[in-house]
Amino acid sequence: MSGGVSMGEKDLVKAVLKDDFGFTIHFGRVFMKPGLPSTFATGTFENNDRRYIFALPGNPVSAWVACQLFAIPSLRKLGGYQNCFQTEIKVRVIS
Question: How far is CA 71 from the centre of its chain?
Answer without folding.
Answer: 5
